[in-house]
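Continuing from the previous page of notes. For each protein in this section, the sequence appears first, followed by its structure tokens. Read the first protein now.
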Amino acid sequence: MKTSTKWMIGIAAALVLFFLLIFYSSEIYVWAMGKITTLVIWAVIFLAGFLIGRFGGRSRSEKAVTKKRLSADDDD
């Protein structure tokens, strides 16, 4: 194939894709907004879980309290 033939095929494919993009722009928009909405929902769920795990656990004062060690010779 000649270089000019490759250029003509490439330009024709680009034009077809361009017209399909214009023709189906509303469907593409609806699909993209659905994907973006899903992504935002997953990000909010992840962020909420991260924040609950980071700040919703035991308080720092409770972590600082030393626990009594259990030993085998204690009778209590």
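Done with the first. The second protein uses the same format. Note its length before scrolling.
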Amino acid sequence: MHAEWADNLPAARRDGENGVRAFTATWQIAADLGLSAPPLPVLPPGTLIDELEQLSRDLLSAADTLDRDYTGMSWAIDRVAAKQKPSSAKGTVKDCHILGHALRLSTLLVAAGYPHSRLLVSSNRSDFAAPNATVFHPDIVPDAAAAGLRYAISLEAAVADLRVAGEIL
């Protein structure tokens, strides 16, 4: 988990910095055209991106790392062999491995009497979600339903789901 975060950090920073530059340029164009807008906050370069990076680092630090679960790993390999989602056309095992562990953890939590919702959060809709949807792909639905695991495409969607369920304010 930490390696993947570190591997993707440079691209995420670059995307964030490009977004801030694009927002600032659009704001300036609106001002040049005489459109009314509140004053653009002046931030030193990198400040917002540095804060977002620190927030993501803090979130990662607060997360628990799960031990390898060989039942979940076996399930993942079976999915790849059967060419079922979340296995991709390339036959990679990573997304199946993630889902297998999430399903196994959810199942164990249910068995232990854990009463709260369990959600897998991933923006990877192409492998986890039904086409043009924000719910699990039909290949995944039976296993997810059996484990009591739901899907959210973002942390914002997960928070909204938990609010609807009455689990957070």
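What the second structure shows: Helices lie at 2-32, 47-62, 70-82, 94-111, 125-128, 141-147, 155-164. The longest strand covers residues 118-121. We return to this in next week's lecture.
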